[in-house]
Amino acid sequence: MKQIKRRKFLALSSSSAIATLIGQCSMAQTQNNKQNFSPDTQINYSKDGILEVDLTASYNQVNLGNKPAYLFSYNGQIPGPRLEAKPGDTIRINFTNNLLQPTNIHYHGLHIPITGNADNVFLHISPGDRLTYEFQIPQNHHAGMFWYHPHLHGLVAEQLFGGLAGLFIVRGNLDEIPEVKAASEEFLVLQDFALDRQGKLLPSQELSIMSGREGDLITANGQFQPNLTIPTPGLLRLRILNASTSRFYRLSLKEHPFFLIATDGGALAEPVEMSELLLTPGERADVLIQANREPGKYPLLNLPYQRVGMGMMGRGMMGRNAPDNQPQVLATVSYDTKVAAMPLPTKLIPVAALAEPQKVRRFQMNHGMKPGQGMVFLFNGQPYQPERIDTQVQLNTVEDWELINTGMMDHPFHVHSNAFQVLSRNEKPEAYRAWKDVVLVKPGETVRIRMPLRDFTGKTVYHCHILDHEDLGMMGNLEIQA
Q1: What are phi and psi of 17, to 5 degrees?
Q2: Range of 90's domain?
């Protein structure tokens, strides 16, 4: 596969045939389920070691910010039901596909089996079919915020952009730290949509698909600029998911720092103070916010961020994806009473250093052209092939992967099932140790990660979490051998 140099890339015609790869669900074939649903998210808790839930994917009229919209949804909700479990619990999800296209479910970030009816992204659930997903959360699983969404290659971006996403929470030792337990807890699921005046999904254009589609309408928990109240004693635990297909969120809370206590895969060793927080698609952050300013309303802002090279933008590549020049208000954090600052925890959960790697691998990320297909995205010069095994690894080993971005776009890199630790960027050590399953690699960067391969064998994938890039080839098959 031939890679594209910058000059050649800028000269690409917009007439390539990429759009033919992205199936558009016919909105004329909508189902007759058009009742309104409450914006309050359904929560399902495990009981006596079992979490069982009926989950249906369908195209419905839903209540989006108190306005009707026609979206893909789980159980008619945006976002889908929140699932909460504990280590050792058995999970049983009775899934029905009422979409007009095939789908499946990926349990993003969970360390569970990658074969059978667990986190198996190669399952193909046809329209009208049902499947029961069943698996056990390992007894030693990290507490954390995970999520579920479709992952049928070629339709991932379309179905997530249509609304299919929900939280999956694993409770554990982090939740029992006294200062964390005392905080008021809120969840924030960030999604963006492209809708017409009737509230129906707009078809994505070829150029926006190549750069990664974004919608003009941003919601938090399916609402427009909701208010999050911090009650006395004045500490908020805000748990944020970027469930957008391509959009990055560069978050800032007016006059308040964030104290990061956990990332994708679980807790940090101690809180880290941050004035801004960048979340790429698929990333999560768990932060504490102290209500120690004057009582009032403080906007949670999305600051401008440029994730595509200026040269491409100059040629109109971004289209409706061009970065906004002004901050956008996503939500408001408010409190009515001035209180003494509630103390933050000084220690959280130790993050042990991993053993030295048995193997080092290199993955180069770029874009290219494929005859008869148009634009594709590449790992090591190759677009995804479903039957090819790209990387074979041994169970119970540790590997270092060097992720090298030689292209012109940011690429968030995600590995299924196995979390990792980020060691360095361009040979500069990371500021703190954390468990991650998505890491941003900017143009010109080399990011080194260290990953233990534990517990589960079989075939899974790694990919760019700008999901249009994944659908257009930036994915590899990973085989874990005993």
Answers
A1: -95, 25
A2: 31-171
